[in-house]
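step=encode ok
step=design start
structure_in=
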């Protein structure tokens, strides 16, 4: 496995770990805490770095409507909006918004899993 592929895979997997820990711990707590937001941002950062590395490795031109690219773009933008929204809720939100935030987090996480597993599948079938 080339070094850059390994590096990219580690970054994407770190994104999975941080984002999953943030999402599930927030869901079990049923209350958004500042460290959850840090985990969301860490997951987003690792996903962005891993995605950029994978883009550099790509042999085909960028085509937005290729299924893996499209789902990846949707997921990374959802992660970004989710992290911003969580930051706003932590800094300016009400108790009610901190209590109810977990209802939306799981949806973003589930959408993010689609390109994660699709990329794993595509990588194994090259």
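sequence_out=
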């Amino acid at each position: 496995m080339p070094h850059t592929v390994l590096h990219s895979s580690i970054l994407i997997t770190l994104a999975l770990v941080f984002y999953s820990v943030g999402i599930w711990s927030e869901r079990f707590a049923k209350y958004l805490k500042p460290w959850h937001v840090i985990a969301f941002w860490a997951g987003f950062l690792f996903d962005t770095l891993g995605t950029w590395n994978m883009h550099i490795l790509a042999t085909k031109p960028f085509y937005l409507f290729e299924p893996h690219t499209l789902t990846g773009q949707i997921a990374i933008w959802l992660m970004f909006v989710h992290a911003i929204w969580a930051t706003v809720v932590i800094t300016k939100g009400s108790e009610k918004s901190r209590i109810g935030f977990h209802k939306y987090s799981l949806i973003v996480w589930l959408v993010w899993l689609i390109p994660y597993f699709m990329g794993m599948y595509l990588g194994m079938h090259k």
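step=design ok
step=annotate ok -> The radius of gyration is 15 Å.
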